[in-house]
Structures are given as structure tokens and as C-alpha cells.
Amino acid sequence: MTKTQIFKFGGASVKDASAVKNLAEILRNRLRKNMVIVVSAMGKTTNALEKLLELRMKEEDISSNSTILKNYHLEICKDLFPADHTIFSKLDNYFLQLEKLLVNPITKDNYDEYYDRVVAFGELISSRIVMEYLCEIGLVSVWQDAREFISTNSDFRFAKINWEKTRLNCQKNLKSILDQFPVVTQGFIGADPQGRTTTLGREGSDFTAAILATSLDAGSVTIWKDVPGVLNADPKLFEDTQLFDELDYQQAAQMTFYGASVIHPKTIKPLANSGIPLFVKSFLKPEAAGTKIFQLGKQNPIPTIVLKQNQILVTFRVTDFTFIEEEQIHTIYEQLNALKLRVNFLQTSAISVSIIIDQQLFKLEQLVNSLKNKFIIRYNEGLELLTVLHPDRKDFSDLNPGYEILLEQSTRNTVQFVRRKE
């Protein structure tokens, strides 16, 4: 029996009508039953939906932004479908639902839950457009709501997967459909036990592909990107990048941990545990080999540069003359865990703990308020974290021209710089 294949297409691969047509061309000779197509929101739609939430919280008018977002999707559909196609009424219905949802007051207390309900529309709309277009050109497929089989807890914005229930849902409900048709579904979203929409963390569509692959005992996952595969640095930020033809699961996981944006950090673990290979390929050159990530058993020695932007440096100093001990570090991490904040960099001294975290709405304020009675807290926003994996030299001044280095840390295999523009 042929094993299921998972294809994941990100926002750039569906950003306009020509991109959707290109996606269809990629699938023309590849699409078959027992295939799941996971689709992200179109272009920068998630950012636009986040902006609607921000305006709604400030009790400002959202009609202009909402109209721009609707017209963006409408123009794509006009280029893909005849004027009498049902996609237009479906699009109207989605935006009607969105507008009704945004009538409700949004506060700090309910923001995370509303965030998930609102941003999910990006994936729901894009996957519906993709499925309808595939059917329009004769590539028959079935649309499925990911919330019906991706089961999570109720940690809105950072939901954890109920693996047992998700597998049961996929084996019981999804497999029978895949025996007859390919399925188009959404990345990034799931549902909690009460049926409420949850999301898996920003850029979580890759993770969705891995979840479905594991739950369906798939043969492979292919992520289609606007780059040739996994590179040793972001080509938009650094010159002379090198392509990895093959990567070991462990090295790929290490790269994503430090912030390599080509693959979502949670993607590798379930695939590695199940021995499912991951291919990263270019939707601009679909015939090219790309990168294969599997149990290679050896690491690639090419130095890798990873840059994380929008970082915050937070330093906690003890309020008396005691030294930093495990108890203080535990107190800080306990609060970070409660706020679902991940530490990207940690440095301790005799009297202080310094951490780097991602910029997230409200989270810094909540962190400071929760610990200000126990520590003297200072922070710097708008920073960058530059990580070099497998460095082949000791001087990295050419990587940091025009930057002030606030913190530096090195081990045998890793060098990191916390920096800001001078």
C-alpha cells in the first residue's frame, strides 16, 4: 500500500494568483490520493489579522483594514475563477464571520483566545481558495477543517498537541477520505476539547505537516519554500550562502532551536521519532533536489549563521547582597513558563541573570510585573541575536559591522552575539 505524502505550502507560495497557479502546476503531475496538502495563510495575511486585533483592542476603526484584506483575497479569486463561482459567496461569508467576531471587546485577559479565533481565518480562507482552484482545473481534491482532527489543549496561541487523540482522529476519519481523494487542509490551527480554535505558535504550519505525517504513518513530508532548500544562512540577509544537500535530524533541530526560519522548531522531533524524511524544496524550481533531512548519522560541518530579530534582553539583579543561586533561576523560569515565553539566550553572573526572549504583545509587561518585587529588572528592546553554529574561525567582526555587542557567549560549537544597531 502506498504511504501518505504530506506537502506543505507556506504563505509566499500562495501570495497571489500566479503563485496559486504555480502551486497547481507543481501538483499537476504529483497530486494523487493519499496526499495531504497543508496550506498557510496567503502572503502577509496573518500580520494583517494581527493588526485588526491591535486596532480593535485600542477601540479604533477596523473597517478600512478589513476592506483592504478582503479586497486582497477578492482580487486573487477574480484572477483564478469565473465571476459566478461559489468561492465569492464563501469569501463573503468568511469575512462576515470575522466582522461579527471582531464586534466583541478584546482585552488583555481574553486576547490569546480571540487571537486564535481571528488569525485562523487566514488559513481557512487560503486553503478553501486553493482547493476550489485545484478542482476548477480538474485536480479533484477535498477540503477538510484541520480543527476536526488536530486535537490540542487550551493553551491559546501555543497549544500543545494531544498526540493520542490526534492520531485516533486521523486514523479514523482522515484516512478513509485519503483512500479516495487528496485532501487540502490548514496549517497552524487545531481545536481544544471544548471545540474552541487554537493555534500552534507563529509559523506553525510546518509543525502541522509533521503532526499529520506522524499520525498517518506517512512516507515523507515536503515543505515548499521560496529558497532552494536549507541554506547555511538567510539569503535575504547574508551573501554567499551554501545549500545543504542532506542534513541529519539532530543538526536540523539544532538550527531551528537557534531560530533558523526555514523550518518551524517543533517540526523535526516528531519526524525524527517516526523516521519520516523531510524534504525542503523550492516552489520556484520544483524539479531541483532541495534538501533531505533524515537519519544521516553525521553532522554537516558547514558553518551556519542564524539571526533572530525583535529580541528583548531582560536582566534580573538580586535586591540584596546574596548571589544568584538555583532558587532565583527557578523563580524566573517558573514565570517564563507560565507566560509561555522561551529563552533564546541565558547568561548568569554572581548577582544577575540575563535572558533573551522574543518580542510578544503584553508579555514583557506581565513578566516585569510578576517579578519586580523579587528582582531589580532592566530591559532593552529591539535587539538581535546572531548565532554561528560550527564556527570555523574566532573573529566575527565582519558579521557585526555597525552594531554594538551587548553580550557575547561561546562554546566549542556555538558563538552568540546579542547586538543592536549603533
TrEMBL record:
Biological processes per GO annotation: homoserine biosynthetic process; lysine biosynthetic process via diaminopimelate; threonine biosynthetic process
GO MF annotations, alphabetized: aspartate kinase activity; ATP binding
Location of the Aspartate/glutamate/uridylate kinase domain: 3-282
InterPro entries in alphabetical order: AceGlu_kinase-like_sf, Asp/Glu/Uridylate_kinase, Asp_kinase, AsparK_Bifunc_asparK/hSer_DH
Keywords recorded for this protein, A-Z: Amino-acid biosynthesis, ATP-binding, Kinase, Nucleotide-binding, Transferase
Annotated catalysed reactions: L-aspartate + ATP = 4-phospho-L-aspartate + ADP
Pfam families the UniProt entry points to: AA_kinase (PF00696)
GO cellular component, one term: cytosol
Pathway entry: Amino-acid biosynthesis; L-threonine biosynthesis; L-threonine from L-aspartate: step 1/5; Amino-acid biosynthesis; L-methionine biosynthesis via de novo pathway; L-homoserine from L-aspartate: step 1/3; Amino-acid biosynthesis; L-lysine biosynthesis via DAP pathway; (S)-tetrahydrodipicolinate from L-aspartate: step 1/4
EC number(s) from the headed UniProt entry: 2.7.2.4
Entry superkingdom: Bacteria
Entry similarity comment: Belongs to the aspartokinase family.
Protein name: Aspartokinase
